[in-house]
Amino acid sequence: MSNDNKDKLSNGIIRKAAQSDLPKLLDVDGECDSIVIMRLKIGKDKLKEALHKRLNESNKEFYVYEIKKNVNNEYNKSEKNNCNKEIAGYATLKLEFPGYKNCELSWIAVKQKYHNKGIGKKLAKFIEKLAKKKGFRNIYAYTSEKGNDKVHQFYKKLKYRKINALEDYYSDGTRAVLYGKSLNE
């Protein structure tokens, strides 16, 4: 993808997810290269069920990064170019986490074809800013320990600190790593 198209991707919008987004959110999960989804061999029906549940949980706020593309598959912000909307990624803010004024970046996913384009960073920064606006002081995120080096680097670049590793966090017995960050930095 050219730098010109990368710049156009930066003009995407972040908006609250809607029930009607469910098929496009399934596409994101199917195309995000998630080590957890692949390792646990989660099928499309279970993914759909999990996404539907997340969309409806009262303690979570679900946001999508939406871009517009024209029929030539070139990215463009203009409404005049017969554009279709594509959800390139999403993130979820969980409003509850142990401790005083803590929250969790509980899900973040970006389609693989949009990796390294700044979309994940924009989503994470959006969630952090939203959490701070809501009065939270710290934000946390879990990720799989093994086979997830890119995700670990992603959190480190965003100035998250490794807090702990938790045994048997995932249903297949895999350890999770907990990262955290002060929102006052």
Please, could you describe this protein's structure?
By secondary structure, the protein is an alpha+beta fold. It has a single domain (3-182), classed as Gcn5-related N-acetyltransferase (GNAT) (Aminopeptidase, 3-Layer(aba) Sandwich). The chain contains six helices and seven strands. It has a seven-stranded mixed sheet with strand order 1-2-3-4-5-7-6, sandwiched between helices. α5 (119-133) links the parallel β4 and β5. α2 (22-31) crosses α4. It is globular. The N and C termini lie far apart (34 Å). Residues 1-8 and 76-82 have low confidence and may be disordered.
Largest sheet, spatial ordering of strands: 1-2-3-4-5-7-6
The CATH homologous superfamily: Gcn5-related N-acetyltransferase (GNAT)
Number of helices, where a helix is a run of at least 4 consecutive DSSP H or I residues: 6
Helices and strands, in N-to-C order? HEHHHEEEHEHEE
Topology readout:
Layout: H1 3-9, E1 13-16, H2 22-31, H3 35-40, H4 44-56, E2 60-69, E3 84-94, E4 102-110, H5 119-133, E5 138-144, H6 149-157, E6 161-166, E7 176-182
Parallel strand pairs: 4-5
Antiparallel strand pairs: 1-2, 2-3, 3-4, 5-7, 6-7
Helix pairs in contact: 2-4
